[in-house]
Automatic annotation (TrEMBL):
Membrane topology, from the record: Multi-pass membrane protein
InterPro entries attached to this UniProt entry: Cit_transptr-like_dom, DASS-Related_Transporters, Na/sul_symport_CS, RCK_C, RCK_C_sf
Protein name (Swiss-Prot/TrEMBL): SLC13 family permease
Protein's cellular compartments: Membrane
A matching Pfam family: CitMHS
Organism placement in taxonomy: Bacteria, Bacillati, Cyanobacteriota, Cyanophyceae, Synechococcales
Domain RCK C-terminal: 217-301, 311-398
Bilayer-crossing regions: 6-29, 36-52, 64-82, 103-124, 144-169, 181-203, 418-449, 461-479, 499-532, 544-564, 584-605
Record's keyword terms, sorted: Membrane, Repeat, Transmembrane, Transmembrane helix, Transport
Amino acid sequence: MSSFLAVAGTGPGLITLGVFIGAIVLFVSGKLAPEVTGLLAAALLVTFGVLSPEEAVKGFGSPALITLMGLFAVASGLFRSGGLDRLRALIGSDVVRSPKRMIALMVGVVAPISGFIPNTPIVATLLPVLEGWCQRRGISPSRVLLPLSFATILGGTISLLGTSTNLLASDVSRQLGFGSLDLFSFTAIGLPIWLIGSTYIFFFSDRLLPDRGSGDEDMLVSLAREGYITDVLIPQGSELIGNSLHDSRLQRRFDVDVLELHRGGDSFSAPLADLQLQAGDRLLLRCNRDNLLRLQQEHTVTLAPVGDQEDDMRELSGATESPQRVVEVLLPNGSSLVGASVRDLRFRQRYNATMLAVRRGNQVLRELLGRVVLQAGDVLLLQAPLDAIRGMQANNDLVLLDELEKDLPTTDRKFTGMAITALMILLPMFKLLPLMAAVLLAMVAMVATGCLRPGEVQRSVRWDVILLLGSLSCFSVAMQKTGLAEALAQDLLRALQGWPAYAVLLVVFVLGQAFTEALSNGTTVVLLLPIATELAKGLALPPMAFIFAITFAASQSFLTPIGYQTNLMVFGPGRYRFLDMARYGAPLTLTLALTTPWLICRYFGL
């Protein structure tokens, strides 16, 4: 490693290496949001004089990033116009009666769609449909949700639009002097990968995926019925009489949330903090048994009659018509709620919803919820009015896991949305328009035709992804400018000199897979592409073959939930354990590690 150490020993090289190592530590530890880490790295490289301000922010003006922003809006317009309603109806229908058939639908239909629409909104849209299907069929969500994520990941390799990783790789390739990639540059290799991966998913899912629950009754609602939602009365002589909830000891001393208050024929729902309590008020509480016992011993509250309590439990489960519903929502990666406590967020006031429990993997948190610091992948059990739940459907910070289609108005713009999306794909395919222009025109057309409201354009963009990808470009620029990429490539060249092209590409591909699982796909692309292309030059091999190897490796994460956004999205709802994903994804990872470099060799004639 003499060349690399020599360059790393210089001032700019040492600073760059230090920033890279620090960024990797932050990426892995999660102490800062990934996009904040990327911005910090860019700022430090400018502060210490490694890069100029223009070089550090070059990625924010790249055609790939602008294309991605437009693509988010187009995808949102397609979904909101009802362009995928038929697919949703098919997945939720009685035509699909077994996990095997559902998986066949995923790999055969959903995966190709993911080749042209970002897979994150596809998974977010189909999650509630699949959960409803599992509940009706008595099938564990763990049997179908991970195949959904894997299918969309495989489909994302079919075209340039499939993932943000592909677009980022195209931009880095342009910056390195090898030109941007076309819409179908990856297709000749992406199609065989899709077929190989789909075959594996179809035949091995029933053998390798665990059964984590029947799906007949949601785990969190089941816990609610077991008694931590309790109906009580305020008796005569209670210290609560004449006080508001805000001034009483009920919420300050005890871990208690008041969900509803019933007074005579009137009912009140959150927020209830300033409502003055009276004798005879009936409260629906969320609390544990110990606190409830203490409240009873101090004559603060008494249990309501059993018949009333049963009525409220039926109301919570949706057995009777009620303006309040209990629903599950998922916190996706990039949500602004991640990293904050429920109390600091003022969750109830912000969403007009009461949090009943949090599921984190297989762990259910029910006590001291105000102190719980939310994490990406958490599943929240909420009670809220129907209007508040509808508002959550349009919120990028939350993914609703319960179907509300019957409550929403239908739209007559689905064919318009589908036509706009089709033209966005066809115009660049026939070289009639550059890809960026086609995507931006499609975005404007979505707004002009009413498929997407103007105010929804900004909300549809995943700004965490944009900030991360834009800031990460400083890594590849610094690697090139300081000579670290060339030096590391020279050391790898000495180690791999004389190896066949397939073996070299295999090493590069496996290295890309390891970086993706440990860090993220975007980080892998910007860190490894400069090194891989320099290695290709030294071996007199096509640099584009190595660009393909890194891009495909970064687009295929099947071992951990952190490597890819869709894996994290299904991890909580599927009630998976960490090793579930590794056991299911390891054979596929190994298969693609052996076949993808071979496909690249055949494509480039190596």
